[in-house]
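4.2 Preliminary Data

To establish feasibility before requesting continued support, the project team ran the inverse folding procedure on a target of 201 residues. The structure was first converted into the token representation described in Section 3, and no sequence information of any kind was made available to the design step. The complete token record follows.
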């Protein structure tokens, strides 16, 4: 299992206190992809720029898709730019891939509202592997989960992560999610104000 798949399974399988927004999770999945590509030496970071490294196609289909979409010549893409580009609709891509592979079942989840129910992974070696990684509080998975609100641990500086490149990606994910949350809040305020105008005194 890749880090984004582990994160996706944990997001769908762990009870948490506040809703996980699909947009937030999409950004975190894109960040998890970069982290796995760094670990595989498929890319490296030059500051916050994603630079192609030793090409070897990942076995994971979505991770291979991510690797193939890396900008392979200068000017290289920043981590922030990658998150917003690659992250667009990534939640749906991982959900569809989970459905296509068949290890899912429809079940209602109060924190991911759906009229038809949301796919939740059934018991499988892959799900148990994700659960074991989560239970062991593996630093990268825990940090990503913290950013999107799956974990209520303190996110400040991700103290248990020591790799500088990974820290750069995690900080970019945190910033992007914070920005997206602010956009949602601003829209909610604007919509509420608009509704109040129409209601009148």
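Position-by-position output of the design step:
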């Amino acid at each position: 299992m890749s880090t984004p798949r582990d994160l996706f399974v944990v997001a769908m399988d762990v009870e948490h206190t506040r809703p996980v927004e699909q947009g937030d999770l999409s950004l975190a999945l894109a960040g998890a992809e970069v982290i796995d590509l760094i670990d595989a030496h498929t890319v490296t970071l030059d500051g916050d720029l994603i630079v192609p490294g030793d090409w070897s196609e990942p076995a994971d289909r979505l991770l291979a898709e991510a690797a193939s979409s890396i900008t392979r010549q200068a000017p290289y893409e920043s981590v922030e730019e990658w998150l917003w580009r690659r992250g667009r609709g990534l939640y749906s891509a991982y959900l569809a891939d989970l459905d296509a592979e068949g290890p899912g079942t429809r079940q209602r989840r109060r924190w991911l509202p759906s009229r038809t129910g949301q796919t939740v992974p059934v018991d499988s070696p892959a799900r148990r592997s994700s659960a074991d990684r989560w239970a062991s509080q593996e630093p990268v998975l825990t940090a990503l989960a913290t950013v999107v609100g799956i974990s209520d641990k303190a996110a400040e500086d991700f103290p248990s992560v020591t790799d500088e490149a990974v820290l750069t990606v995690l900080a970019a994910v945190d910033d992007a999610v914070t920005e997206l949350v602010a956009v949602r809040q601003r829209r909610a305020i604007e919509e509420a104000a608009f509704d109040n105008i129409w209601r009148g005194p």
